[in-house]
């Protein structure tokens, strides 16, 4: 056999062996990734079994692959839609509200300041009453028109319902004839005023506060911004709702497990107290009235109670945090 033919044959054999080795490595890598993803998802379901045993996947969290970092959640009964507000992971882009229909399909409304520039606030909470929609801002609840929020185009900030001095609201909810908004505390990076750090009658060290305001159609933006009650709470509260006479707090931070803490309001101790410029009824949400604590997946944000179920949205699947894409953070769940 000519020398050139032998060399060609050897080269072909080497290429063939190289291809076989590459295919083996590629196959093992793919199988390894698949095995890892399966183990992560199974592990998550086992780690949070008490939650998932009573939970149902409702619909996809909108915008998780396009910069949306979900924060607030609300339900508009008369329209049959959820509102999910959040900020953008892309610096300078407008915060937004996704309107989610019963079929899970969603569309986006960008938020604007009164001068037409991008509204880029954290948008920790969202609630609505009448023609107004309230989104938590730096100094209180920023006000938008609900019709504009539902438009799928733009909604322009109209004004603000100011909070007590030093109080920075992180979530909001409407219940009955009241607007509730509360602060988030974490030592070192999310501090609260000293008057919100209270040792409760049972000895708990509470570090944040929820204020309640009366809805009033004769007041600017439909709310009398003098608080009529306050609720002393634990730290790390991302959202709240009312369920069957109990107040439920969603607490979370980082990759640690979240917690849904239930409090029996009829058992909560209260007293008349002056906090800052306001004298009001102060309720202590502490171990004396807490009825249960449900461990949930990381990064739960605002929650909504509807038809016997609590709807939960996490921010873990956003492009900012990513890890939730491998788990169940891509979906909004409801918990019985």
Kindly list the characteristics that best describe this protein:
336 residues, alpha+beta, Tachylectin-2, Chain A, 2 domains, six-stranded mixed sheet, five-stranded mixed sheet, 3 helices, 16% helix, globular
Any overview of this molecule?
The chain is of the alpha+beta class. It has three helices and 25 strands. The strands form six sheets. It has a six-stranded mixed sheet with strand order 11-12-15-16-21-20, with no helix packed on it. The protein folds into two domains: 1-47; 48-335, Tachylectin-2, Chain A (5 Propeller), CATH 2.115.10.
Radius of gyration: 25 Å
Overall form: globular
Question: How do the SSEs run, as a string of H and E?
Answer: HHEEEEEEEEHEEEEEEEEEEEEEEEEE
Number of strands: 25
Q: Give the proportion of residues in helices.
A: 10-25%
Low-confidence stretches: 30-40
Question: Biggest sheet: strands side by side, in what order?
Answer: 11-12-15-16-21-20
> In terms of structural class, how would the helical and strand content be classed?
alpha+beta
Strand content: 35-45%
Q: In CATH terms, what is the architecture of the largest domain?
A: 5 Propeller
CATH class wording of the largest domain: Mainly Beta
Mean pLDDT: 90
Overall structural domain count: 2
Tell me about the largest β-sheet: 6 strands, mixed
CATH topology of the largest domain: Tachylectin-2, Chain A
Terminal Cα separation, in Å? Answer: 79 Å
Helix tally? Answer: 3
Helices and strands, with pairings:
Blueprint (H helix, E strand, L loop, with lengths): L2 H45 L1 H4 L2 E6 L7 E9 L4 E8 L7 E5 L5 E7 L13 E4 L2 E5 L3 E6 H4 L4 E3 L2 E4 L6 E7 L2 E6 L14 E2 L5 E2 L1 E7 L14 E5 L3 E7 L2 E6 L6 E7 L5 E6 L2 E7 L5 E7 L3 E7 L2 E6 L16 E5 L1
Parallel strand pairs: 5-9, 16-21
Antiparallel strand pairs: 1-25, 2-3, 3-4, 4-5, 6-7, 7-8, 8-10, 11-12, 12-15, 13-14, 15-16, 17-18, 18-19, 19-22, 20-21, 23-24, 24-25
